[in-house]
Amino acid sequence: MRVLIATDKFKHSLTADEVARHLASGLMTERPNLTVDCLSIADGGEGTVAAAISAGYTPHVTTVSGPTGLPVTATMAVRDHIAVIETASASGLGSLPGGIPNALGATSLGTGELINVALNHGCTLIYIGAGGSACTDGGAGLLAGLGAKFLDSRGQPLPPGGGALEHLAVADLSGLHPGLRNARFVLASDVDNPLLGEQGAPAVFGPQKGADPSAVELLNRALTRLVDVLEGEIGPRAKAAATKAGAGAAGGIGYAAIAVLAARVEPGVTVVGRLLDLDKKIEGATLVITGEGCLDEQSLGGKAPLGVSRAAARAGVPVIAVCGRTTLPDQTLKAAGFNRTFALADIEPDPAICMSNAGPLLETVGTTIASEILSPNVPGKCRDERVKQFPGQR
Predict the structure, then answer these.
(1) Does residue 247 have a pLDDT over 90?
(2) In the CATH scheme, what is the code of domain 2-40+277-373?
(3) How far does CA 388 lie from the centroid of its chain?
(4) What pLDDT does 394 receive?
(5) What number of other Cβ atoms are within 10 A of residue 387's Cβ?
């Protein structure tokens, strides 16, 4: 029997690697002869680079400008001419000093600097994992990291951040990295928001980054100004890009990637699945186990576990979901393709204890999956009959 564990992180608790390791430990405790393969999976946000590294890409660590300009350490994954970067690493909420948001001043500069490093490394295909950003600057910082200049009416450089773009007069793209001419970009995103309007980056994601209603209005005006000025520089595609699905990803980094870098937008889990060669790794498995910290309605919009479930369905392999908690009813979980779902919160209802004790709880779940679902009497098969009732199993 071979079990494939392909999970995302349990946010604020365990990394994807740690989740898989605890589940595998539980499985092997009960069934030491099992073959267990582990993959980190992600949806384009935090963990995308780690997933690529788990698939054999080489990590490259560098120092770039964080969301407030202070240096941060960021990692990208490289194999041959391909690079995988993520906005969460260079421009993410987790890099804010003291965790204090800066809705108007946070910048995507570090993400552009990461791309710059990838280009200098000779990479010609660059995947940008869009998610977890601290900024709402329409990707102006990203472009600045690649050599663009954003000036006010006096010809002075604008300070970083989305708020300052309200005073933008000139977008000078003449100094962009020459390697961009031969590079292709893929924006890996699990959101389809446009840049502006009621469903745009400021309105939907700005409050998550500390923007109050007045800051949301200012950011919407500022990013509208960015689009208008870029239209004078690159033509109609600047306005067309603002309406594209995914333009609002990562505080508008998606917009800059689409409008200036001609990026193709793909669901993050599709991109990661391709990087991992997920379909091939599922072939021949007896069982697939996937999961994330919280299985909810957002999970059904294209998060990592749903992507794994669909890939398992294509191969005709049963799939189990393991999560910290779920807000979805059993019938919805089954309709999403999960044959079984185990929620740690059903075993330990205290959220603080559940999160701090997630590792041992996952081992308990792994042991139960091995003993109750993987039949020792029918090699290569999962039991068809209903699994015995167990706390944490749906």
Answers:
(1) yes
(2) 3.40.50.10350
(3) 35
(4) 60
(5) 16
